UniProtKB/TrEMBL annotation:
<feature type="domain" description="MobA/VirD2-like nuclease">
    <location>
        <begin position="85"/>
        <end position="187"/>
    </location>
</feature>
<dbReference type="InterPro" id="IPR005094">
    <property type="entry name" value="Endonuclease_MobA/VirD2"/>
</dbReference>
<feature type="region of interest" description="Disordered">
    <location>
        <begin position="194"/>
        <end position="215"/>
    </location>
</feature>
<protein>
    <recommendedName>
        <fullName>MobA/VirD2-like nuclease domain-containing protein</fullName>
    </recommendedName>
</protein>
<feature type="region of interest" description="Disordered">
    <location>
        <begin position="766"/>
        <end position="811"/>
    </location>
</feature>
<feature type="compositionally biased region" description="Basic and acidic residues">
    <location>
        <begin position="782"/>
        <end position="795"/>
    </location>
</feature>
<dbReference type="Pfam" id="PF03432">
    <property type="entry name" value="Relaxase"/>
</dbReference>
Length: 811
């Protein structure tokens, strides 16, 4: 608990924490540290000690099973290969409630109400059946890096009576409670049910590595996009392996425990620079829906496909850096215009079928979102050298595909698919593609994305609907508008010639060799522009090579014209796309600059508002302090800061007495045992204090009386905000004579104590301690009897008269 509290009130990992304070929590803790006071490490340790007191008092240990890991974070196994587990402490329950950045910020009072309702509905605050509550606090320390206003809730899982709190299915319960709080307060808290699961987090080390290498995105996002494109474009597991290597990504299998013929998972990596090590990422670490079992749900399960996949996996695992496909398939063939039209019709049929699927069928909609995300990822792989609108569209739709494994089912065989669209988009930059068919496929994908948006609106998830609208229908529209218009690309087909058998064999061999070269080139392609340029240069060289005299001058001339026409078509495709990409980057840069300027203006305005509010708050506090000082000066010209501070201390003591009496309101055997145990502990502490002398205690008491006026006013205002009351001026005036008498009694007692010998001082301390113990026991019995007599009545805490306080102070 101390480690968690120290982090929450600390500066954070990058000093992002500001104005760390409590907004809600246990009444006894809020009485001391509430009121908006900024917390430091000492206060954090005090709060942690108070939260952990029931666990230490009753000696209860809360543990859970955890996997044993070595220094590098790898799970340890025994001699049989089983994963080793151990019991670790688990007495702290921690969660955060966060708002979307567009929701703005809430006041401390509203966050306090939300945190109190959340803890109560989670079952941590006790109930009317007699179950004791847990101690908890809610910490607020500013907004996150992404501008999300949030709070942290820390709960001790040992209740006030020593029993353990139930945390079974706490994730599902917290999701349900979050949804209820959203509806009641008109907010959008993160992580609610009926909404997709969150994306995989990115470690600071991965971000620093990408920034150090000058990359705009981390390797995990780039790999996720490559895996989505290959998975959706493939019709089988073997084709998926080949397409991954075709995109230039390293891939290797993960075999089942104790087996070398059963593939249970996979990992992927980018080809490292010379001298760097390969960093592997498991499919499940990239996204929940990219594990191998989840990918297999989208492919047909047949014996022959399993055999082909096993062969490709074995080859890829033997040497990932130099993998060559065992049996190349459909990924090497460029689509024909008829295939483009067929895939566009498949997308339209899929959209038509989804109209009859209810919004509550999460599996069907997640499957569609996954395929549409893969199609946009494929288009991004071939069109964008750096992540742009297409990559953002893919990530936006992928968020709707993140479900748990048990919530998804295999894709029906008769179900239309977007796999064909992804396959043809992977060839979108190759020469010979008809631009009108490309736009047709893309428009069908945009319509499918619009259907996903409508589904989220029908399901009540306005946040996801706005996200898809902003990403797909605004940013993507600029890309589709900049694409080449239909009919602007013309391709000159090679003339039909009659070749001899020898010439035809030579041409076929040359085409086969060129196909292998193109495959190898695609394996290591890094982007759309580089791929087109290399293809154009290679076609020109091949055209010159054929024209050098083989197979015959006449045939060579015709083939030369055809190859040069193909190279010209590739250049014609690349130029408008490159210009469109350049224009898009310029627009994005202008938009980012404008947004940054708007954000800066908003930050300056917010700082001015906060500064103005702080000035008025200081003025108000100073006015209150001046009024109280004036009243006190009018009543007693001689200032008595010690007396005022002692009065505040007694007000706080009354507050603690009320809280303690409320906890003693259950006359059960367990409560009696607890009282007896507390008395025994008090006696032991008193004896230890008597042995060490009480001079230090008296000195601290006198020192506490010299607390400044500002500190006294701060504590009194804290009590006012916490309990809704403040000792009036008249009460303070009535208390001042008693305070003077108490100060006189304390001074006299100190003088008498100083005249005693050391052994007499010890005897007097023992007597005073025993008297204090007897008085505490009498008060406990009186409170117990009072509770028994007034069990069914309205409870009113007993008070202590001034005379009793005087006598106690003299003792």
């Amino acid at each position: 608990m101390s480690g968690l509290m120290s982090y929450l009130v600390g500066g954070g990992k990058t000093n992002e924490h500001t104005e760390q304070h409590l907004v809600a929590g246990d009444p006894s803790i809020m009485a001391i540290h509430g009121g908006g006071a900024v917390l430091d490490r000492a206060a954090a340790l005090e709060i942690a000690k108070s939260l952990d007191r029931p666990r230490k008092f009753f000696g209860v240990e809360v543990t859970r099973l955890a996997v044993q890991k070595d220094a590098e974070g790898v799970a340890q196994r025994d001699s049989s290969g089983a994963i080793l587990k151990e019991r670790v402490p688990a007495d702290v329950w921690h969660c955060s409630l966060s708002l979307a950045a567009e929701e703005g910020q809430l006041s401390d009072e509203k966050w306090g109400r939300i945190a109190t309702d959340f803890v109560d509905r989670m079952g941590f605050a006790g109930d009317e059946s007699g179950r004791a509550g847990c101690r908890w606090v809610a910490v607020r320390h500013g907004v996150s890096k992404n501008g999300n206003d949030h709070i942290h809730i820390a709960v001790s899982l040992v209740r006030e009576d020593g029993t353990k709190a139930l945390v079974h299915r706490d994730f599902d319960r917290s999701q349900q409670v979050s949804l209820e709080l959203e509806r009641e307060h008109g907010l959008q808290l993160s992580n609610q049910p009926n909404r997709e699961l969150g994306e995989r987090g990115i470690t600071p080390g991965a971000r620093e590595s990408a920034s150090r290498r000058g990359q705009v995105e981390v390797d995990a996002h780039r790999l996720e996009r490559a895996v989505r494109a290959a998975a959706v474009a493939s019709v089988g597991e073997a084709e998926f392996v080949r397409r991954m290597r075709q995109s230039g990504v390293l891939i290797r299998p993960r075999y089942a425990d104790g087996r070398d013929d059963v593939i249970a998972g996979y990992s992927v990596a980018l080809r490292p620079d010379k001298g760097d090590t390969v960093v592997w990422h498991g499919g499940g670490k990239l996204a929940r829906d990219l594990t191998l079992p989840e990918l297999r749900k989208g492919w047909p399960d047949r014996p022959e496909t399993a055999t082909d996949a096993a062969a490709e996996w074995r080859t890829a695992g033997a040497n990932p850096n130099h993998y060559q496909p065992v049996k190349p398939g459909r990924e090497t063939a460029a689509p024909t215009p008829e295939m483009w039209q067929q895939y566009a019709r498949d997308l339209a049929r899929l959209q038509e079928q989804m109209r009859g699927v209810p919004a509550g069928d999460r599996d069907a909609w997640a499957r569609v979102a996954k395929e549409a995300s893969g199609a946009f990822a494929a288009w991004s792989q071939r069109m964008e050298t750096t992540p742009g609108p297409l990559a953002e569209a893919s990530r936006s739709l992928a968020r709707s595909a993140h479900l748990r494994a048990y919530e998804t089912k295999p894709r029906p065989v008769s179900w239309p698919s977007a796999a064909g669209g992804a396959a043809v988009l992977l060839h979108a930059t190759q020469a010979g593609k008809p631009a009108q068919e490309v736009l047709l496929v893309l428009r069908e994908l945009e319509k499918l994305s619009r259907a996903l948006r409508d589904m989220h609106q029908a399901a009540g998830d306005a946040r996801r609907a706005r996200d898809i609208t902003a990403t797909i229908h605004e940013r993507l529209r600029t890309v589709t508008q900049q694409s080449p218009a239909a009919g602007t690309i013309t391709v000159t087909a090679p003339p039909a010639v009659q070749l001899t058998a020898k010439q035809q064999a030579f041409v076929d061999a040359w085409r086969q060799e060129r196909t292998k070269q193109l495959i190898q080139m695609n394996y290591h392609a890094d982007g759309c522009r580089e791929t087109l340029q290399r293809a154009a240069r290679r076609d020109e060289r091949n055209a010159e090579w054929v024209a050098s005299g083989r197979p015959s001058p006449a045939d060579a001339a015709r083939h030369t014209d055809a190859l040069r026409a193909e190279a010209a078509a590739a250049k014609a495709v690349w130029k408008p796309l490159d210009q469109a990409h350049t224009n898009n980057l310029a627009r994005l840069e202008q938009s980012a600059t404008a947004k940054a300027q708007a954000d800066a203006a908003a930050i300056i305005a917010a700082e001015e508002r906060v500064s103005t509010a702080g000035v008025f708050a200081k003025r108000s506090a100073r006015a209150d302090l001046a009024a109280i000082r004036a009243e006190r000066q009018a009543a007693h010209p001689t200032p008595l800061p010690e007396g005022r501070h002692q009065l505040e201390q007694w007000v706080y003591a009354d507050t603690q007495h009320i809280v303690q009496a409320a906890r003693n309101n259950e006359p059960t055997e367990l409560q009696r045992a607890r009282l007896a145990k507390e008395q025994a502990a008090a006696e032991a502490a008193a004896a230890a204090k008597a042995e060490s002398g009480i001079r230090t205690s008296w000195t601290q008491t006198v020192e506490q009386m010299s607390v400044s006026d500002h500190e006294t006013m701060r504590r009194i205002h804290h009590n006012q905000r916490t309990y809704g009351r403040l000792p009036p001026i008249e009460s303070a005036r009535q208390e001042l004579p008693h305070l003077e008498q108490r100060i006189h009694n304390a001074t006299a007692a100190m003088a008498r104590f100083d005249t005693l010998q050391p052994e007499q001082q010890l005897t007097a301390a023992v007597k005073a301690t025993k008297a204090e113990q007897e008085r505490a026991q009498a008060n406990a019995r009186a409170a117990h009897e009072y509770t028994e007599q007034n069990r069914d009545r309205h409870w009113t805490p007993p008070t202590q008269s001034n005379q009793e306080r005087d006598r106690g102070y003299e003792r």
